[in-house]
């Protein structure tokens, strides 16, 4: 299982709407994420707009490609793109992936 953590920056003035949009995402978006292998997916948002995402996948590149091929993802990414600072392209392709440097289970 691959563990992936990534970072994006939400525009501070859009934080309330970003939270609202994620309080109940489109059901077809949730189903597409699950069907393409995005497991244990969470987003964490700091008050200044720093967004950290975490997901577990068997193969992140394959899950990302499968999700990119869905119609609902194209619509979702187009709606979400204006929420982010210094983003070129779609949010699901423009995030900064963080390197995992510690995992407790690996050391036990």
UniProtKB/TrEMBL annotation:
Family matches, as InterPro entries: Dimeric_a/b-barrel, Rham/fucose_mutarotase
UniProt xrefs under Gene3D superfamilies: 3.30.70.100
Biological process according to GO: rhamnose catabolic process
Pfam families, per database record: rhaM
GO molecular function: racemase and epimerase activity, acting on carbohydrates and derivatives
Coiled-coil positions: none
Protein name as catalogued: L-rhamnose mutarotase
């Amino acid at each position: 299982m691959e563990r992936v953590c990534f970072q994006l920056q939400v525009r501070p003035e859009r934080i309330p709407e970003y939270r609202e949009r994620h309080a109940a995402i489109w059901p077809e978006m949730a189903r597409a994420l699950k069907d393409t292998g995005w497991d244990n997916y969470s987003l964490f948002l700091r008050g200044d707009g720093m967004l950290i995402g975490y997901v577990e996948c068997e193969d992140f590149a394959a899950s990302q490609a499968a999700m990119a091929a869905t119609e609902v993802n194209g619509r979702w990414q187009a709606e979400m793109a204006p929420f982010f600072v210094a983003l070129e392209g779609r949010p699901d392709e423009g995030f900064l992936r963080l390197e995992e440097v510690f995992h407790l289970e690996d050391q036990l």
